[in-house]
Amino acid sequence: MLQVVDYALLKPYLTVEDVARGAARAEELGVASFCVNPVYAQYVRPLLRRVRLCVVVDFPFGASQTWERAQAVSRLAEVAEELDVVAPIGLVKSRRWVEVRRDLVSVVGAAGGRVVKVIVEEPYLTDEERYRLYDIVAEAGAHFIKSSTGFAEEAYAKQLGNPIHSTPERAAAIARYIRERGYRLGVKMAGGIRTREQARAIIEAIGFGLDPARVRLGTSTPEALA
What we know:
Elements: E1 5-9, H1 16-29, E2 33-36, H2 41-44, E3 52-57, H3 66-76, E4 82-86, H4 89-94, H5 97-109, E5 115-119, H6 127-140, E6 144-146, H7 154-160, H8 168-181, E7 186-190, H9 196-206, E8 215-219
Parallel strand pairs: 1-2, 1-8, 2-3, 3-4, 4-5, 5-6, 6-7, 7-8
């Protein structure tokens, strides 16, 4: 199962030493990728040999201007194999779809072919918003829909009746929409995945097997999923 795990260390108080220890652990476990904030990329890159480096972009709010996001992606793509980019959530909630599409096309294009996972922040979305955003993610040429930053505000999610953490039901809904539309997108679920049983249920719900090109699980506790 670890071959589809993205081991993420994204807390704001982590030190370089904390992240370096995480990189060593990622190599030892053989996860799919080790995911960090941009400031750590230069320190982590030399420590990873068999594990891919993943860097988050405009995390966790997706609130920067498009040119800033694209520029960050372009620079980080020089050192990272994978980029987890937060969708422009404020524009999505405003339903400014032309602007959302323009942003994601620019941002994904700036990656130069690197794997891009667009974080759609499921807890904040209505069904209409999420499915429209899925379409735009696919049209922009991204490789994955990622469910959440794991930092979503619980109070707002509850207003919409959405779970704050990953569930098999949400994983199944994303995968089903991808199949119905014929999109060649992967599914990454993140947020609250803490046990092997949870992970197994989510993988089964997605239904793409243990293919790291189609399935990822984001967690800060990969040992619990082993």
